Amino acid sequence: MESEVSAVRYMCCDEYRSCLAKESGEYVPYDVNGQYGHLFNIIEERYKDNTVSRSLTLQKQINRYAPIHLEPDDSNLDVTIGPYETYEDGLFSYKATFEAFVGIRDDTATSQVKLFGDQLQDLERNLPMDNIFKSDSVSAAPIRVINLLYNSGDVKGPQTIAFNLPNDERIVNERGTSMVMLKNISEANFKHILKPIADACIRVEQKEYVNFEPYYTHIVCHECCHGIGPHSITLPSGKKSTVRLELQEFHSALEEAKADIVGLWALNFLIKKGLLPKSLSQSMYVSFLAGCFRSIRFGLEEAHGKGQALQFTGCMTKGLLSYTQMENSQLTLRRLRML
């Protein structure tokens, strides 16, 4: 009898009513108190047992795998797989999509950027904002420079040149973040996209400042600055929340704009501390201006493009840029320190 129960097809109440209304001969209504009433008890018990069993199995899997924290420092192969970014969720920017990156670590380049990860707490402490929003427990973020071999998942359109993950505020608070720089992609991006854009848009006298070093250094600082600033917050009502939850669909674009501008501030801060060469003082701003046109190409529906348009509009409004109408229209960066 129980083997027959295993073959029972379950259906929702509305579907059952629909079948009865059509007087279908395929489905026969049963009286729970009738000849086959005891089958309903077996079905109910089977359903409960199955639900409990599945819940226990799921919980066992979570307990087994969730606490694992992998340390990739000793591996030459760098692998990132998971549902991280929420760029595609245009409703509230809550739903993440899967992506995967596989690359080979560049040990020399990795050692050169270690400085930035070690300075995160000092940068947080000196952020130009109210101390109430600052954290005193920012973890030093490991930075790995890799040459990308393969990527898949949500990687269409504009190609990622670096990422700082995870985005989950709880994990960020407990373990911090990890940054990965895709060096070969950055080099190709600069050579084939940014340099031609700079040649077309930047005033001749300032083109000499557009080179790979300041461009790449700002990318590193941009990723670092995703990890500082407010993440977990307390609302005026006393409720605990996160910046991501409260900003909803506006979060991604504002976060990208914040990382860019705070990245410039952080570079200037590190130069003043003597940790970076003074030669970056002007070149990083001109390279940033050329980068504005690179990112705006992504469009106003994409987080980086929208965030860059916000920054560019702010620079124009505050008079940081001057526009020269010539045969080939060009822009000149006028006042640097205001950034």
UniProtKB/TrEMBL annotation:
The keyword Acetylation appears for this protein: no
Gene Ontology MF terms in the entry: dipeptidyl-peptidase activity; metal ion binding
Family annotation (Pfam families): Peptidase_M49 (PF03571)
GO cellular component, one term: cytoplasm
Entry keywords, A to Z: Hydrolase, Metal-binding
Name of this chain's protein: Nudix hydrolase 3
Naturally occurring in which organism (per UniProt): Panicum virgatum (Blackwell switchgrass)
